[in-house]
Amino acid sequence: xxxxxxxxxxxxxxxxxxxxxxxxxxxxxxxxxxxxxxxxxxxxxxxxxxxxxxxxxxxxxxxxxxxxxxxxxxxxxxxxxxxxxxxxxxxxxxxxxxxxxxxxxxxxxxxxxxxxxxxxxxxxxxxxxxxxxxxxxxxxxxxxxxxxxxxxxxxxxxxxxxxxxxxxxxxxxxxxxxxxxxxxxxxxxxxxxxxxxxxxxxxxxxxxxxxxxxxxxxxxxxxxxxxxxxxxxxxxxxxxxxxxxxxxxxxxxxxxxxxxxxxxxxxxxxxxxxxxxxxxxxxxxxxxxxxxxxxxxxxxxxxxxxxxxxxxxxxxxxxxxxxxxxxxxxxxxxxxxxxxxxxxxxxxxxxxxxxxxxxxxxxxxxxxxxxxxxx
Length: 375
Fold this sequence. Notes:
Layout: H1 4-9, E1 12-18, H2 22-34, E2 40-44, E3 59-60, H3 65-74, H4 77-98, H5 100-103, E4 110-114, H6 125-136, E5 141-143, E6 158-162, E7 166-167, H7 170-183, E8 187-190, E9 193-197, E10 203-208, E11 212-223, E12 239-248, E13 260-263, E14 268-273, E15 276-281, H8 299-313, E16 321-331, E17 338-341, E18 346-350, H9 356-373
């Protein structure tokens, strides 16, 4: 049961954004900046974003050497360059917008551990640097000398550094977005599960534990719920991809390296944080099992990551784990995000391919531009 005041003030908006993750908040912020008098509402079903915005590993990355080489098997060179450019520019934009201190952004470099079956990738390193030079003006990748001092297992045959990558605190990034959204007067309602959207009329039906069904109406609506958008919008090329992340207890030994690290063709990633090991990934050990929207831990992948920690990263050490969680990403046949109009009043921005940290801000800007120009 709603009061007269609730019906009068809280159900009708110029823009309703569904999803309060990186993309949803970025969309609302960019739109409000250009439309200062607009009433903007963000609806989020959880206390925190449900997908991966605060559940990722905090990698500020745009692609390891083997990932870029793999992309070239499935995409044209121009498509790969556009993908890398979008990700790298996105990282630079959030650093400029919010500042390194706010994000706890460290330009510590990205590193890829190369195994025996990947050594041929080193032969193409200079060619990839040449391809990327128009974007970065400097060589991106280099081979680390004396990498054995880092203490990795003998199965690691080389380490490649990407000098333009880094790491950040995902929680601080979301906090910065929350703070700025509040300064602009954007409303965020959590605990509101959107059940249905009429993409032509702008009617958004949500459920609330106390109030039951709520009928919001937006002159414009933006769907920014990534993999979960399949429940609201049909026929999207979206495949959910669950990712496991774990954090160890404080380690009783010194970690002899710093930076963000990639292993197993980028499917495994790790870094140190607060004297602990943060380790995640392993989706390639059970692709089918990880095509899930349920936040549950896959024991096959958990065992695999435990083994990587104790046999490859810290060989011979016993690692005790304090916490673990999963986040839901979205992938598809193409690596580029879907940013498009899907009705008379509705747009969608989804399928970030595990790169929400890098491209979420820019995707939000592009969706905001579509909202302002496409109606």
